[in-house]
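Raw record, unedited: BTB domain-containing protein
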Amino acid sequence: MATALDDKSKIYCSPPFKFLIGDTAIYVHVDLVTQCSRPLERMIHGSMVEAKQGFATLEDVGLNTFLRFVQWLYHGYYDAASPRNLPASEKSQIEDEVVEPGQPDLHPSLINLRNTTDDRPLVADSFIGDVQLYVYAGRGYQPYYKEDEEKARGQSLKESFIRRIYRVRNIKKDAPQPRQNSNKREDYSEVFLGHARLYVFADKYDIQTLKEFTIEELHATLAVYTLYQERTGDIVRLLRYVYANTAETKSGVEDLRTLLTQYMEVEIDTLIKDEDLQGLMIEDGGPLLADLMKVVRNKLA
């Protein structure tokens, strides 16, 4: 006697759809894609040429970014890029200073936070529904309560940044924790950009849950990241990409630019010494410059 399938299992009975990323063909169950993105749903089931030919060529996304999207579809999380250890020719001026990995300096109330145990698949949820609030605190999550927000007001900028509040649908208990850097030789450019590129992809295809998740993942990394003066270029490259590929922040909206503005508030004393950032401000001459001026005004207030 056949066993009835639940809605989650039915996803895997849907046919595969082929995406061409460069020369690489990637096959994904149709229902997984269509339930998370209305633009991709129209591409697959609508009157667009992709629906008629049975495959889609995506020229606006890199292979690694799309693979992270697919991993998120199936598992509810994705693996971040790995930092690059600079070769000797690129680190001649960098000292062998090492920071022991571990917890960042946290307010006592931020210690001993545990991960949630909610193990429901992230992508099984619909576009709109009840949302739970969780607070990321450096290494783990805890439920958010109103009194926590009141206590956070009196904390330092760094502690307030670490305790950033996100609307998280589900948190996979087996999702990898962000890796903390330990010395000045570790180039985190691709780590940061990997999250940002996936955010831009999710924004284009209206995958709101993934957009939110990428912001959270980038924040989680920045929360445990030690910004050495020698590594400010990693942040500048992130700023350059984000401000070139995202729209201006709408009033009241928490987006990737909002996160980076708050991070700049924390690290402005270190970042402002970077000549490339100074050049980028002149080159941008618009939103980035305006956001940096807000940061400076807040610091002087």
